[in-house]
Amino acid sequence: MTREQFIALISEEQESLRRFLLALCEGDRMEAEDIAQEAMVKAYIAMERFVERAKFATWLFKIAYNTFLDHQRSGWNRRTDLDAAEQMPGGPCADDAFQYQELYEAIGTLPLKERSAILLFYVSGYSVKEIAKITGGSQLAVKQQLSRGRVKLRQILER
Q: Which CATH number fits domain 108-159: 1.10.10.10, 1.20.58.460, 3.20.20.370, 3.40.50.300?
């Protein structure tokens, strides 16, 4: 794969990748952006190992998912405390960040595997087979995670 091909493919997937990571990070835009950047750098470094038979988006999302897991395992978390948040300047779109806060919070209560399956299936539009490749699980496990995740989300959002 050439550098130009890589840039073209990344450009096509960048928005959905960032949306997926933003939801995984429960709406923490800074954390999601950091993970997205790190994942894209890792993908660029590993682009020679990309197998053309594989779907580029699935390969990229797997790298991003593993990068997210690495950040979770290391205890990396950049939550802004309330005092610092009060000092941050807000723009006309500041309230837009809270538009989906209830949904982010509900998704954030799900176990990681269920949260990932829900986001990849419903937000990013991946098939069960592709989700299994991204997360390293079986298709049966992904189906169970989707089912459990839907039930839990319904219960949380109905409260």
A: 1.10.10.10
Q: For 10-27, what is each residue's pLDDT tens digit?
A: 898 888 899 888 888 877
What is the residue type of 83? D
Q: Are 72 and 24 in contact (CB under 8 A)?
A: no
- Enter the DSSP assignment of 125: -
C-alpha 151/C-alpha 136 separation (Å) is 23
Instruction: Give pTM, 2 decimals.
Output: 0.69
Please give the CATH number for the structural domain made up of 1-78.
Answer: 1.10.1740.10
Helix then strand count (H, E) for the chain reads 8, 0
